Amino acid sequence: MFLGHYGAAFAAKKWAPKVSLGLLVLAAVWLDLLWSLFLILHWEDVAISPGITKVIPIDFTNYSLSHSLVMAVAWGVVFWMVSLVLTNNQKTSLILGGLVVAHWFLNVITHRPDLSLLPEGNPMTPRWGLGLWNSVPGTIVVELALLSAGIWLYANATKPVGAKGQWFFWSLCAALIASFAALFFMPVPKAPIWVAIEGQVQLVFVVWALWTDDHRKNA
Ligand SMILES: [Zn+2]
């Protein structure tokens, strides 16, 4: 899943008005930032496998440190605890931790059955994934629907402070949709390192979301 994670972050602003959209996005894509870092460190692996799904040509051979359910919950608890220390706000911290864990459940919708329960599970461990990536129209409809719902909630929960508040927000939305569209046109990555670099590019959206939120106030 790609846009759906951003949709969750945008939507969360309604219930966590005190926290910047940048931090909500950071929580929503935290597992992917870890995953792409772990790929660079060779702690996790992918294989380039054109055709393995219609949308994503990647076989997630080992990503259980970042993307098993138990580790997703563990990372969510870390996020919750750090936020609690920094904000002293239980509700905000729970939403940030919840966004980290929600990433796993959103991924279940799109991935092949490659999401495991435990880290370093043996091959017999049950794996989850509903495989929406096997349908191009299905992927487009679900991803755009989740993002649109989030955008709608965020646009109603906040209002711009000056023109920049509009410009940063709508350009962020356009850039997200453009990156999603690029998935369908980009050449197959030549090596796992390129997959990792594409993953780290999401940090740009974290910063973009911070800027956006700096130029908007709660409605
Ligand atoms: Zn992910």
Molecular structure report:
This protein has 219 residues and is mainly alpha-helical. The protein is 63% helix and 9% strand. It has helices spanning 3-12, 21-28, 30-40, 64-67, 69-87, 90-110, 136-157, 163-182, 192-200, 202-214, and strands at 45-48, 58-62, 115-116, 127-128, 158-160, 216-218. The mean pLDDT is 95. Residues 31-32, 67, 103, 107 line the site of zinc ion (ZN).
What is the secondary structure topology, with strand pairs?
Elements: H1 3-12, H2 21-28, H3 30-40, E1 45-48, E2 58-62, H4 64-67, H5 69-87, H6 90-110, E3 115-116, E4 127-128, H7 136-157, E5 158-160, H8 163-182, H9 192-200, H10 202-214, E6 216-218
Antiparallel strand pairs: 1-2, 3-4, 5-6
Helix pairs in contact: 1-2, 1-6, 1-7, 2-6, 2-10, 3-9, 5-6, 8-10
The structure holds zinc ion (ZN).
Q: Summed up, what is this model?
A:
Helix content is 63%, strand content 9%.
Keywords:
mainly alpha, two-stranded antiparallel ribbon, binds zinc ion, 219 residues
Domain module count: 1
Uncertain parts: none
What is the count of β-strands? 6
Mean pLDDT: 95
Sheet with most strands: 2 strands, antiparallel
The small molecules bound here are: zinc ion
How large a portion of the residues is in β-strands, by DSSP E?
5-15%
What is the 3D form?
globular
Question: Treating each run of at least 4 consecutive H or I residues as one helix, how many helices?
Answer: 10
Structural class: mainly alpha
**Could you tell me the radius of gyration in angstroms?**
17 Å
Helix content: 55-70%
Strand order of the largest sheet: 1-2
Listing every helix as H and every strand as E from the N terminus to the C terminus, the arrangement reads HHHEEHHHEEHEHHHE
Distance between the termini: 29 Å
